[in-house]
Write a structure and sequence with these properties.
Number of helices: 2
Radius of gyration: 48 Å
Order of helices and strands: HHEEEEEEEEEEEEEEEEEE
Number of strands: 18
Shape: elongated
Number of domains: 4
CATH architecture of the largest domain: Sandwich
Structural class: mainly beta
Strand order of the largest sheet: 11-18-16-13-14
Largest sheet: 5 strands, mixed
Length: 308
Amino acid sequence: MNPSHLDPTSGRLEAAAVATAGAEAATAEAAEADEAAVPRLTSNGFGRRSLFAAAMVGAPAIALSVATPAAAASAGAALSVAFGNSTPRAPGSSLADGVATVRSVAGHPVPNETVTLSVTGPAYFGSPGTTTFVTVTNAAGEAFATGLTAGDVSGTVVLTATITGVAAQTAEIAVAVPTGSIAFAQPNYPAAVGATFAIAGRVAQTGGPAVESVALSYSGGLSGPARATVSSGGAFTVTGVVAPSSAAITGTITATQVGLTSGSTQVLTVGGYISFDQSAYRAYLNDPPFSGSRGRLPRLRHSRFPRR
């Protein structure tokens, strides 16, 4: 038996609750219909839903972006090292034509890449005993072995180039001792007190690689450059030699090179001296001032030096 049939009050309360719930549902549906039919505008004329949707589309996906550090310039790069030419070098010769080259995977030069150059064998960077040189590549991706010099003995020089992340590369060059001799153009020279002058000489080689320079030493108050460059024909000139500040002093200049017989010349410092521009002259009888003087100077026709 249904208790509501026994209690009239309970039946009325139940009916009122149902009616109230129905009215609230109808009111909610009407509000939603109004919201859809008449969107509320913000101060800039856009509906709140439109603004929210636009904000969601335009917002950067920060959580999805992860910063990746740039790869090192040398990663995957190609490294090579070589000398400008493979001709054996004489002791004291420059080996600065050794060069390391760095290129990217695409074959483009890699500038500003740190390169470590090291050397074994008879050679050094700048001064004897220095075997390592750190430099950077230029715009062409090249790093030169600046200051690399051949030592004083025969042997094989091995130049090694290293960059981060790439296998080291090497290049070789031979150092050989030449044979021959050195001589100055004159055995002695006069020089005024405190004067600066130049002296010529020549290297006569009989074997071995071409000599690029000779070492110079001085005595008797003389001073000058430590080395003189030798031309491809063997000639050299010692410029900037300075005589001592006192007269009647004899000094010596000596030129040396490993494997060659050394040469020397003496310099006498004097208070002053007279010299001709040339050691000998040729004159012809029909040239002034000898014109018309055939009878007085006949011997000049057949002799370079006049007879006494």
